[in-house]
Amino acid sequence: MKKTLCVLLAAAALLPAWACAQPVEPDLSAYEDAGGKAEIPVEILGGLDEETREDLVEAPKYAALTFDDGPRADTTGRLLDGLLERGAAATFFVIGEQVPCNKELLQRMKAEGHQIGNHTYSHVRLLKADKDAVVEEIHKTEVLLTEAVGEGSFWLRPPYGLIGSERAELIRTPMIYWSVDPQDWKLLNKDKVVAAVLDAVQPGDVILLHDFYSTSVDAALEIVDRLQKEGYDFVTVEELFRIQGVEPQQGTLYARPDRVRTLS
Ligand code: NI
């Protein structure tokens, strides 16, 4: 009797195995319809072999487009139109002098989810400027930006990416360098700028462009089109730090959230 019971229990233990012998194929298209970003439930993932699982859960790729030396009414406006159409966010390091005449463009940037940063008042070389001038160049721009778009933390991109450690101590925000520089201001050629970025870009990169040039605007929009097809999502620099779990420090110059640039 005992032996029979054991056999019966053993058979019962096997039951779930053959009850599941014909798994129902999960309808994964439903998740694609949701925009491709929805997470696949653990119970479905658990039932898939490792290879299929890796294909389905490909790590999302993020990059930040940054634009210096604007805003400029014609080119920046066209860029904002294109970014909006494509659902891409960007970061604009603007020159203080150009803020009063372009308030509407700046308000539009903020309203459309872009990040606005400080590129000094008159594009000064912070490496050589005396300390008072450094503070003034940055402060004046902050005041103008606050007037235009309200309170904010306007991160600094030093002109030419240059700042020394003594001047950096005066900076009360994180500073952003870049990790991909196609030299768009020199090439002034859409196809060459696109090729230079596509050649170099890796997830997590900060791409340097200038919305001052029409060729750079054309290039930026093509870069977005091409990289979105490869699974890239374009986010602000601030968002890139958040995604990577890096807490940005004031006075530190970052090439990208996970890479600090040595001060000049
Ligand atoms: Ni610049």
Record the SSE blueprint.
Layout: H1 2-19, H2 29-33, H3 42-45, H4 50-56, E1 61-68, H5 73-86, E2 90-94, H6 103-111, E3 115-118, H7 131-149, H8 165-168, E4 175-176, H9 184-187, H10 190-200, E5 206-210, H11 214-229, E6 232-234, H12 237-244, E7 253-256, E8 259-260
Parallel strand pairs: 1-2, 1-5, 1-6, 2-3, 4-7
Antiparallel strand pairs: 7-8
Explained architecture:
There is one protein chain. By secondary structure, the protein is an alpha/beta fold. The protein is 45% helix and 12% strand. Strands 1, 2, 3, 5 and 6 form a five-stranded parallel beta sheet that branches. It is globular and about 65 Å long. The N and C termini lie far apart (86 Å). Residues 1-21 and 26-37 have low confidence and may be disordered. Bound molecules: nickel (II) ion (NI). Nickel (II) ion binds at residues 68-69, 119, 123, 159.
Task: State the end-to-end distance.
Answer: 86 Å
Please give the share of residues in helix.
Answer: 40-55%
Largest sheet: 5 strands, parallel
Radius of gyration computed on alpha carbons: 25 Å
What share of the residues does DSSP label as strand, in percent?
5-15%
| Structural class by helix and strand composition | alpha/beta
- Number of DSSP strands? 8
Number of helices: 12
The H-and-E topology, N to C, reads as HHHHEHEHEHHEHHEHEHEE
Quaternary structure type: single chain
Which spans of ≥5 residues are poorly predicted at pLDDT below 50?
Answer: 1-21, 26-37
| Rounded average pLDDT | 87
**Distinct small-molecule ligands in the complex:** nickel (II) ion
Globally, the shape reads globular
